[in-house]
Every structure is written in C-alpha cells, then in structure tokens.
Design brief:
Elements: H1 7-16, E1 19-24, E2 29-33, E3 37-42, E4 45-51, E5 54-60, E6 63-68, H2 77-87, H3 91-100, H4 105-114
Helix pairs in contact: 2-3, 2-4, 3-4
C-alpha cells in the first residue's frame, strides 16, 4: 500500500530539493506562437516551477484553439529597393524574388536580370 503524502510534506520535500512552485492567479489566456501557427488556451491553470534558477511554466486545462499564421517577410526594405533599382523591376517582384532566394541579394539580382 502507498502512503498518502500531505501537501505540507510535499512542499517541504520540494524545498529540500531546491524546487519551488507557485500558481499564477487570474490567467485569462496563454498564446503560443510558432512560425506556422498560433495556439490559444483560454482560461488555463498556470503554475511556475523554479529549479536551480530555471523557470518552467506548466499550463493545464482550458479551451484550446489553433490557427495558421501568415509568415511575415523578414527582408529589409532597403534590400528590396536595392534589388528593384539594380534590375529595373517593381518592388513587388523584387520582394517576391528575394523571399524565394532566402534574402540573398546577389542571387535575386541575377535571377531578375535573367528574366525577360
């Protein structure tokens, strides 16, 4: 048979091991953003576990919803203008080609110059 451990004993054991755990009150929602989607958790229970200077967030319960996110361009406007000026193409064409080339200026310029 297993002996039931009281919350008080559990707290003492955690303190001896250098752990602390606190609940975060009144959490309305937690949003997790990735490059391709956004996960929203409504009315979750959130606890912070601190161990050796590291914080671990535990999120439980709540209504979960996911939605795909649009990937935003990380190409600087100066680069887009430079490619457009060098090739005589439009800003939109320069942006699209730079995104296809992963931001590589030389490759984008050569690619646009080779297009008729």
């Amino acid at each position: 048979m297993h002996r039931r451990v009281s919350p008080r004993e559990t707290k003492r054991m955690m303190q001896r091991m250098g752990l602390s755990m606190d609940a975060v009150p009144n959490v309305e929602q937690v949003i997790i953003k990735t490059s391709s989607k956004e996960i929203t958790i409504e009315e979750p229970e959130v606890a912070i576990l601190e161990m050796q200077g590291q914080k671990i967030f535990q999120v439980t319960g709540g209504k979960i919803s996911e939605k795909a996110t649009e990937r935003k361009s990380t190409i600087p406007e100066e680069d887009i203008r430079l490619v457009a000026d060098q090739t005589g193409k439009s800003i939109e064409e320069a942006r699209k080609t730079l995104e296809e080339c992963g931001g590589d200026l030389a490759k984008a310029i050569l690619l646009l110059q080779s297009k008729i």
